[in-house]
Design a protein that fits this description.
about 300 residues; single chain; alpha+beta
């Protein structure tokens, strides 16, 4: 591709209609420039395997759409009314929004919500740990996830206990001596389950949503799960001494000065009461869990 470079082009290689009164001639369109433009457009069609059609003036657009759709890792878009191989028709509204979007690996909506009863490759069965104290009656201690699950979108992530257990296909099995072996089969139902009366929320996976299928998290298989309320901080006090001067009287022989020390108390306090939902990598050690149980900070654990 190149800019027009004929003898009648402007100094900056552009077209001009000319002006006979000056006179300036109009730009002559050369065959090499027209051929360059033609071949640039033909190259787009060829890359998309589109055969040039003299009667079709929308082939460049179609070719670009095909090239974008075939690009690995980019969400596919299509022409309004196009029927996909799975029978889903693409719909584009007046604002240009596309109602059907497909990636090159997963359906984006389902993958985001992680709502499948069976696992996709690369994921482990979900534990379903119970989190306590997440609902305490519309006050400032209520967890944001609880609020979200009351919305229309949040309801898509909720299932009852009966539905959860009915869909679970993964079974944890152990040796006779109690040592863990692994998951028997794959599955697990990654849904949230709320208990309004108890104020509890069963999480899809407190070991980490994206645990690898073949391995397990840093605590090992069967590790206890916990909900820990972070209550850290401290109170300290001290006394600071400030020195002030009091000038006395002046005599014939000396200037009399007295010093006075004043003690001022100081009190400082710091505290952190944030809620912590630990993953497998940050759960307390067995020794730490014992201390938490003693202090009443460990609400629930589930294997």
């Amino acid at each position: 591709m190149h800019r027009i470079d004929s003898s009648t082009a402007t100094p900056d290689n552009r077209f001009t209609e000319g002006d006979p009164t000056i006179p300036v001639p109009a730009t002559t369109v050369t065959d090499d420039w027209l051929n360059a433009v033609q071949e640039e457009l033909i190259a787009i069609l060829a890359a998309a395997n589109v055969t040039p059609d003299k009667a079709n003036n929308a082939q460049v657009l179609a070719a670009i759409q095909r090239l974008i759709a075939d690009k690995t890792g980019i969400a596919k878009v299509g022409v309004n009314g196009l029927v996909n191989p799975d029978g889903v028709t693409i719909k584009i509204d007046a604002t240009g929004k596309i109602s059907v979007v497909q990636s090159d690996k997963y359906d984006l909506g389902e993958f985001y919500y992680f709502r499948h009863p069976t696992l996709k490759p690369g994921f482990a069965p979900l534990q379903g740990g119970l989190i306590s104290g997440v609902y305490q009656g519309k006050n400032i201690t209520e967890w944001p996830i609880w609020e979200y699950l009351q919305t229309a979108d949040g309801q898509l992530l909720l299932k009852t206990e009966a539905e959860w257990h009915a869909m679970t296909t993964a079974i944890w099995h152990t040796n006779a001596d109690g040592t863990t072996v692994g998951w028997d089969g794959i599955g697990g139902a990654p849904y949230y389950v709320q208990d309004l009366g108890a104020g509890t929320l069963r999480m899809p996976d407190v070991r980490g949503m994206y645990a690898e299928a073949a391995g397990f998290d840093s605590l090992g298989v069967g590790a206890l799960m916990a909900t820990v309320r972070n209550a850290t901080g401290g109170i300290s006090s001290d006394r600071r001494v400030f020195v002030s001067t009091r000038q006395g009287c002046v005599t014939t022989t000396l200037y009399e000065t007295a010093f006075r020390a004043v003690a001022c108390p100081r009190l400082s306090c710091r505290i952190d009461l944030s809620l912590v939902m630990p993953t497998g990598a940050v759960l307390p050690s067995p020794l730490g869990r014992s201390g938490l149980r003693y202090l009443g900070s460990l609400h629930h654990d589930a294997g």
